[in-house]
């Protein structure tokens, strides 16, 4: 367990820039949400939420794909796992620590946003159930998109080359973004995203366990 | 019960259709310092990487401390220390941070011994690993590996890049370590004098095969280099088996033979040589003879 915590700590330290960026972005979004909530009337709130969520999704796609790519690319090129495996560490633990770190980065961005939204909703919104469901849908699909982007990053970062992997990553991610736009932010978009996340994690694990370091 | 700390059975490894390791069998018992020798690119590092689970074998089976090396659990990895070729430390870390990472990850850590090593090697803790010289990196890697007090220490060319003083310090440390009970060392090096100094068993890899695997003193006893002078022209074939190398020049044959015994002496005597003189061989001479192409004559050695 301690071993695992050390590996997670190492991953966080190595990717600290992404955590800082997540905190800054989260703060900016909180400010946007608060100011919009106080300035706009309650009828405009859902429209504003949708308008805000689309550019945010694009930023998230790029950001979280980059985390995955950078984690794997740096490992491959600086031979970090090759060194770690000479210590009491297994491949499975290295990858698990990496994925947990990615999830933590995602939560660093989303948790403050979700909490802020919930508080504002309780304070300002009229008791109309449709809004509550809509916020839930938006956040669920955004979280899943962030996780999907991260998983794509993990896979492409392990590919050979400097230009093609990130390009492939971004192309796949934008294909998924298109699916979300077509399918909407509701539950119909969740299934393909969840399937893709599971498949990506399994594939990344299989590749990582078999790779020569 | 199996007392072998390292066990390699019929190991085969192909890289892009090229056979690097061709049916290696190797057993290293507990407490042994095993010197693994071979020319560059012959597969020593590949063998070590397979043992550590960094590379998968094409065929065959390898185990460390009785556990399949493709699936070493954390507890077993904690009993193994390793200095990899090229000292693959995390380059952008500060030395102090790398030490902390290793300390936190390792099952056991002898801080007193580690501090002693750091002081001996005079390693700067505030510098980044990439700013260290190759020699300093080697020392740091060695100190990190030794601080864990491993049951098995795998050293892949550990003295590469070290100056004479540091190399001597390293060898003394290795000897100090082996003197502690139950320690086993697998030691790969190009500096044969180092290997000769500390190893008690030698393996020589050539053309993908382990052509020598025996105790050092036995190796020296079993491989003979003879200068044989005949009264007339030297015979083209002297019908002795296990000839590693022979050079024929007029009346003289210089012969390197494995497993020299009375029968071979008797065969040689039938050619009535006028003189037969033994040429003393160092480990380096034996290594050079054994790694000449197409030699697989000492496979039967114990």
| Main sheet strand line-up of chain B | 6-7-8-3-9-10
Structural class of the helices, strands and pairings of chain A? mainly alpha
The CATH superfamily of the largest domain in chain B turns out to be: P-loop containing nucleotide triphosphate hydrolases
Mean of the pLDDT scores of chain A? 84
Pair with the biggest interface = A-B, 23 and 26 residues
Could you say which structural class the secondary elements and strand pairing of chain B correspond to? alpha/beta
Helix content of chain A: over 70%
Instruction: Please give the largest β-sheet of chain A.
Output: none
Instruction: Tell me the strand percentage band of chain B.
Output: 25-35%
Tally of separate helices of chain B: 10
Average pLDDT of chain B:
85
- What distance separates the N and C termini of chain A? 24 Å
Instruction: Please tell me the CATH architecture of the largest domain in chain B by its name.
Output: 3-Layer(aba) Sandwich
Structural write-up:
The complex is a heterodimer of chains A (213) and B (302). Chain A has 213 residues and is mainly α. Chain A has one domain. In chain A, helix 6 packs antiparallel against helix 7. The longest helix of chain A has 34 residues. Chain A starts with a helix and ends with a helix. The relative contact order of chain A is 0.14. Chain B has 302 residues and is α/β, with parallel strands linked by helices. Chain B folds into two domains: 213 residues, P-loop containing nucleotide triphosphate hydrolases (Rossmann fold); 57 residues. Chain B has ten helices and 14 strands. Chain B is elongated, with a radius of gyration of 22 Å. The C terminus of chain B is likely disordered. Chains A and B meet through helix 1 and helix 4 of A and helix 2 and helix 3 of B.
């Amino acid at each position: 367990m301690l071993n695992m915590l050390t590996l997670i700590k190492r991953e966080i330290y190595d990717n600290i820039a992404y955590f800082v960026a997540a905190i800054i972005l989260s703060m900016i979004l909180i400010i946007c949400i608060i100011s919009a909530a106080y300035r706009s009337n309650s009828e405009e709130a859902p429209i504003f939420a949708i308008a805000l969520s689309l550019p945010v999704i694009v930023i998230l796609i790029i950001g979280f794909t980059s985390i995955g790519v950078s984690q794997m690319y740096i490992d491959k090129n600086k031979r970090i796992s090759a060194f770690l495996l000479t210590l009491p560490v297994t491949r499975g633990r290295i990858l698990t620590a990496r994925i947990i770190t990615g999830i933590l980065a995602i939560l660093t961005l989303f948790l403050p946003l979700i909490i802020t939204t919930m508080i504002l909703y309780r304070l300002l919104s009229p008791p109309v159930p449709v809004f509550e469901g809509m916020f839930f849908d938006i956040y669920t699909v955004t979280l899943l998109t962030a996780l999907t982007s991260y998983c794509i990053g993990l896979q492409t970062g392990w590919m050979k080359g400097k230009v093609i992997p990130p390009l492939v990553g971004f192309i796949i991610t934008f294909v998924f973004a298109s699916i979300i736009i077509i399918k909407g932010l509701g539950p119909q978009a969740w299934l393909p995203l969840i399937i893709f996340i599971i498949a990506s994690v399994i594939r990344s694990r299989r590749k990582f366990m078999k790779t020569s370091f | 019960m199996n007392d072998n700390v390292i066990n390699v059975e019929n190991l085969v490894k192909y890289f892009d259709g090229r056979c690097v390791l061709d049916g290696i069998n190797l057993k290293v018992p507990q407490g042994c310092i095993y010197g693994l020798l071979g020319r560059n690119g012959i597969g020593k590092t590949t063998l070590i990487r397979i043992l550590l689970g960094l590379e998968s074998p094409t065929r065959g089976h390898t185990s460390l401390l009785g556990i399949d090396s493709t699936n070493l659990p954390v507890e077993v990895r904690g009993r193994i220390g390793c200095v990899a070729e090229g000292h693959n430390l995390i380059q952008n870390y500060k030395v102090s941070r790398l030490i902390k990472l290793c300390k936190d990850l390792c099952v056991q850590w002898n801080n007193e011994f580690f501090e002693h090593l750091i002081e001996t090697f005079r390693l700067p803790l505030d510098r980044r690993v990439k700013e260290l010289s190759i020699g300093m990196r080697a020392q740091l890697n060695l100190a990190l590996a030794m601080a864990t007090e491993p049951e098995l220490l795998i050293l892949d060319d550990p003295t590469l890049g070290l100056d004479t003083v540091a190399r001597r310090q390293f060898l003394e440390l290795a000897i100090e370590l082996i003197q502690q009970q139950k320690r086993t060392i697998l030691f790969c090096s190009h500096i044969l004098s180092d290997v000769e100094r500390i190893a008690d068993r030698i393996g020589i890899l050539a053309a993908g095969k382990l052509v020598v695997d025996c105790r050092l003193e036995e190796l020296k006893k079993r491989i003979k280099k003879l200068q044989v002078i005949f009264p007339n022209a030297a015979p083209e074939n002297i019908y002795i088996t296990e000839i590693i190398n022979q050079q024929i020049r007029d009346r003289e044959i210089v012969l390197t033979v494995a497993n020299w015994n009375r029968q071979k002496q008797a065969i040689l005597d039938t050619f009535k040589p006028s003189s037969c003189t033994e040429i003393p061989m160092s480990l380096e001479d034996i290594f050079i003879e054994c790694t000449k192409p197409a030699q697989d004559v000492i496979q039967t050695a114990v």
